[in-house]
Design a protein that fits this description.
Elements lengths: L1 H13 L9 H14 L4 H12 L8 H17 L4 H9 L6 H4 L13 H4 L8 H20 L3 H4 L13 E3 L2 E3 L1 H16 L7 E5 L5 H9 L4 E5 L4 H12 L5 E2 L11 H6 L2 E4 L14 E5 L7 H14 L2 E7 L22 E8 L6 E8 L1
Helix pairs in contact: 2-3, 2-4, 8-10, 10-11
């Protein structure tokens, strides 16, 4: 076993992991053919048609283009009602794995859990992988309970929509996704006054797990999600199902804020593509959030977002890998070299304990 693990480590160093990539031109060609032969839900088709037709699409990440193609195919073949097994578990919050949980993976499990929960199998996940997800969710839950996160564990639970991967403890459903959201929610609440965060912007929100978590602990908050399709479509669909009583500003094409102002500002949850945030007025947000996404962008994309954060927000919270891995340029982003503005005042900038190999940063924007 030791020899095999050593060989794997050597191979990884010699043969680096190859990321899937797809140019914007090739994505457009694929999409034109795909949408002609497949039945695609109208909201998803609207988003992809719009986003892929914009001038900015030529600068889209070649990695994200490849993922978008894959995820659109998943949605068509397996349905959005199963996205938490087919897409989210792999790409929107990182797989439950040893690397992310390394500091706590050997902690003694002190909570009693029905054995059937650990052996639970899922329709769209291999049996061996199902058990792995259950195990790592248990490890993370055990850690949060040991650190007295009960006030969050009672409110922030896994939602039923999307066919989730979860374990049940004390009649509450917990997933690797919801438990990670608790850690991020706690970081925000410890460093900022949650009662003064009335208007939030999040980029790269995945399925909307952070939005769902924050809205479960406070009623006085409006939330804007900015992302690319099909991720934006999944977040929009998922959050409508999760909060049926909330007013939703669904994605639509616009090029003037005055045309949407009333509806946008009255809505509780709003959905935009990246090219649309330039129309949003200055300093409208109390906090901007970017979790587990900036390290998958080009240097130009990151700099553009930091300019927008500076214009739009009063505070910024971002979480990234200590060293960027999805890199297609000569230089890498690390914990030390993101383009922090001189007028930003540091509140927090340090390595995370969990997830391992990540860091949290919170700045007040003056």
């Amino acid at each position: 076993m030791r020899i095999r693990n050593f060989i794997k480590k050597v191979i990884r160093k010699i043969l680096p992991y190859k990321l899937p990539v797809l140019t914007s031109d090739n994505f457009r060609k694929w999409w034109i053919t795909f949408k002609k032969k497949e039945k695609i839900e109208n909201d998803l088709k609207l988003m992809v048609d719009y986003f892929s037709s914009q001038n900015d699409f030529k600068n889209s990440s070649i990695y994200w283009n490849a993922l978008a193609k894959q995820h659109i195919s998943y949605l068509v073949n397996y349905g959005i009602e199963n996205f938490k097994q087919t897409i989210e578990s792999k790409h929107y919050f990182g797989e439950g794995n040893y690397k992310l949980l390394k500091p706590i993976v050997d902690y003694e499990i002190k909570i009693n859990l029905n054995e059937s929960e650990l052996n639970k199998k899922y329709t769209f996940v291999e049996d061996k992988i199902s058990k792995k997800y259950n195990k790592f969710t248990l490890i993370l839950l055990n850690y949060l309970i040991s650190k007295n996160f009960h006030k969050y564990l009672n409110k922030i639970n896994e939602d039923d929509y999307g066919n989730p991967i979860y374990i049940t403890y004390n009649e509450k459903k917990h997933s690797f996704s919801s438990l990670n959201s608790i850690i991020e929610t706690d970081t925000i609440c410890k460093n900022l006054n949650i009662n003064k965060l009335h208007n939030i912007l999040e980029i790269g929100a995945g399925s909307g797990r952070t939005c769902a978590s924050l809205l479960k602990i406070t009623n006085d908050m409006k939330y804007t999600i900015c992302d690319i399709p099909p991720t934006l479509y999944i977040a929009q669909y998922n959050l409508q199902k999760t909060f049926p009583g909330k007013k939703i500003f669904k994605f639509r094409s616009f090029n003037n804020y005055s045309n949407i102002k009333d509806e946008f500002e009255k809505a509780d949850i709003k959905f935009l593509t990246p090219d649309q945030i330039k129309y949003i007025p200055n300093k409208i947000f109390d906090l901007s959030i970017a979790i587990d996404c900036l390290h998958e962008m080009s240097k130009k994309q990151v700099e553009n977002y930091f300019d927008e954060f500076d214009r739009l927000s009063k505070n910024i919270f971002f979480k990234c890998q200590n060293t960027q891995w999805a890199n297609f340029e000569n230089s890498k982003y690390t914990i030390d070299n993101y383009p922090i503005k001189k007028n930003w005042k540091k509140i927090l900038h340090e390595k995370c304990f969990i997830p391992n190999e990540y860091f949290d940063a919170i700045y007040k924007i003056n």
